[in-house]
Structures are given as C-alpha cells and as structure tokens.
Amino acid sequence: MGAAHDAASDPPVKSARTTVVVGRLLGAAFLICFGTGVYSHLLQDPLPWLPMPTRPVELFRFTQGLHVIAGTAAVPLLLAKLWTVYPRLFTWPPVTSVAHFLERASIAVLVGVSLVEVTIGLMNLVQWYAFPFPFRATHFALAWVLIGALAIHLGVKLPVIARVWRRQPGDRADATGRFVSRRGFLAAVGAAAASAVALTAGQSVPALAPLNVLAPRRMGVGPQGLPINRTAAQAGVTETAVAPDWVLTVTSPAGSRDFTLDDLRSLPQAEEVLPIACVEGWSQSASWRGVRLIDLLDAAGAPEPSAPLRIESLQERGAFARTEMPPQYARDPLTLVALELNGGTLDIDHGYPARVIAPGRPGVMQTKWLRRIEVTA
Ligand SMILES: Nc1nc2c(c(=O)[nH]1)N[C@H]1C(S)=C(S)[C@@H](COP(=O)(O)O)O[C@H]1N2
Ligand SMILES: [Mo]
C-alpha cells in the first residue's frame, strides 16, 4: 500500500508527501496537547509523591494556553489529513492479512479517538456538555489511547515517511505540476490552522487579544476587567455571600477559629499580581489583595501544613464547591485569601467576600466564596 500512494496516478494533493507533511504538523500538535494535558491533569489530581511547582506563576497559564491553541490548530489539520487519505480508508477487501488487520485497526482507533478528542475538547471550551460522560476523565483516558495508536501508526508508516523525507527537493514537482497544487493545498490548510489560532489565541495571549472574535471569553471583559467562569447566581450563593453573619472558619488539629470580614481586613494585607488561568483556555493576570494564606493559618494557630488543605466554598453543589490545596501552595507566600481585585472590593462574581488565589494553579482550583479552610495535619 505504501508504494501505491506514491504512484503517478494518485491525485496530486493526495500524495504520500501531502499526507506526511500534514501528519507531521498534526503529530506535533497532538504531542503538545498530550504533554500539556498531562501537566494540567497532574495539577488537578496531584500524585502524593510528585509535588507540582508553584513557580513560574504563569507556567500553567502558558501550558494550558498552548494546549488549547494546539488543539484548535489540530482541527483543520486533522480534517485535511483525513481528506488526503479518505479513499484509502475504504479499500477492498478491508483486510488481507493479520498485519494488515492490525494496521487498519490501529488507524480506525486513531481516527475515531482523534475526532472524539478534538470534538469534546472544543465543546468543553464553549461549556457545552452534551455528552453523557465526565469530560476530563474521558479526555485524559482517550489521550493515552490516541498516543498509543499514534505510536503504532508511526511505526507502521515509517517506510513511507522515510521515503518522503529522503527525497531531494528537486524531486518534489513532477511533469503534471503536482507540486503546485500540493503547495496550494498545504497553504490553504496552513491558513485555516493559522486563522483558527489567531482568532482565538487572544483569550490567553495579550498581544492577540484584539483579534479574539471566536473564543467565548474576552480579555478585560467582565466585572473589574476580568472574565467570569461561573457567576454567583449560577453557583447559588447570591444570598450566603452577602449574609451579615458570614465568617471564614479555619480548622486544624490545634482547634477552630472563625474570622469575620473585618477580622480578615485587620490582618496584614498583601498585594500580588497572579493570573487566573482557566482550563478552558482563557487566562488573564490581575492584581489581588488580601491576607497571605500562611499568615491566616498562623493567626488561627494552625501548624505549618504538610498535607493537602481542604477548601470549602459557600457553593453547595458542583465539582468546584470543594477543592484540595497541596501544602506547597499553602506555604507559598504568594498564595492569598483575596478580598480585593484590581483595586476594589472583590465583585460577588469573583468570589466576594473571600477567595483563594495561588501561583501556578488551574483556575478551577482558585476557589471562590470561601466558607471553610481545613488543615488536616
Ligand atoms: N466556588 C467556586 N469557585 C470557582 C469556580 C466555581 O465554579 N465555584 N470556578 C473556577 C474556575 S473554573 C475559574 S476559571 C475561576 C475563575 O475565576 P473568576 O470568575 O474570578 O475569573 O474560578 C474558579 N473558582
Ligand atoms: Mo476554569
């Protein structure tokens, strides 16, 4: 089969070279998605023996921005790649030997899983959970299947890839002018991938912000100049967040202490510039002011944390109502219980009366509308 698609009778843009060139870009996009995806997963589901770094504070902002940019670019690349091989996916007889069967099975898995991964990834960006399975667990599990199938696919196709790579530049064009149409096709695919990126990357890359017309969230747009992922109304906290008897309870083996908002305001205040970096791809830096978490724990008489803290929100339902904070973030002086954002009292949609903001963590862990912090050891 490898030799067949190099034959002169192949439609020019569907030659092995086109497939290899597009495949190279798609493979790179998938590898970036995989690496950055594993990093995001480890931040959200930490392994006890692998402490994740709190610096640089913008590291997750960078990796997750890249994840979504590469995933977005993968959509046109994947469609282009499928188009160049489309007829070959349906050759007859479907299976000629055991080796052929394995090759075809791995391609079927690769194509199917790739399509599902980019589709549910895009759906997650626009918060359209129209599928009956949990997004993150599924996206993560399928990523491993995809990478495995990709490795098999590359192994099987190595002779074709090597042949294309060995060819001299002069061999590229043939008498029928295939090089030109191939170049046109690749330029079109490149332009599609570049525009998909350019029109969305501004949700995380400030320099591209003016071009961001497709991404659901805009930099600088939202209360206090910062986008909102879930509002107080959506979280069901519009009353509890402004209740006059609100207190933040800090518990530890040493005991429990309640802090009113005035108590928190009378503790030493610190101001830090830290990003909100949403797993959905948008991110923005902001200026936060409040009590350093480590100072608060100290004021509550809690021991220096050595196990994950349990952080509870006033929000009663939903995955982010409760989060865990590994001890390295709790001990980090940049981690704040923020009371102010960009120079004003925290907007209710940003987590009034108090929220967590820690360096290098995904937005989902930056719990809003705090109710309780528990030091377990
Ligand atoms: N209690 C609670 N905290 C939460 C959330 C939530 O739904 N409930 N959403 C998180 C997510 S996904 C993000 S990206 C950030 C967004 O913070 P912002 O709305 O202040 O920009 O808040 C996080 N904190
Ligand atoms: Mo988020």
Give a brief rundown of this model:
It comes from Agromyces binzhouensis. The chain is α+β, with helices and mostly antiparallel strands.
Describe this structure in words.
Keywords: Membrane, Transmembrane, Transmembrane helix. This is Twin-arginine translocation signal domain-containing protein. InterPro entries: OxRdtase_Mopterin-bd_dom, OxRdtase_Mopterin-bd_sf, TAT_signal_bac_arc. The N and C termini lie far apart (62 Å). The chain is built from 9 helices and 10 strands. Strands 2-1-10-5-6 form a 5-stranded mixed beta sheet. Strands 3, 4, 7, 8 and 9 form a 5-stranded antiparallel beta sheet that branches. The N terminus is likely disordered. 42% of the residues lie in helices and 14% in strands. It has 2 domains: 200 residues, Fumarate Reductase Cytochrome B subunit (Up-down Bundle), CATH 1.20.950; 151 residues, Alpha-Beta Complex (Sulfite Oxidase, Chain A, domain 2), CATH 3.90.420.10. It is of the alpha+beta class. It binds the ligand Nc1nc2c(c(=O)[nH]1)N[C@H]1C(S)=C(S)[C@@H](COP(=O)(O)O)O[C@H]1N2 and molybdenum atom (MO). The site of the ligand Nc1nc2c(c(=O)[nH]1)N[C@H]1C(S)=C(S)[C@@H](COP(=O)(O)O)O[C@H]1N2 has 21 residues, from loops. The site of ligand MTE has 21 residues, from loops.
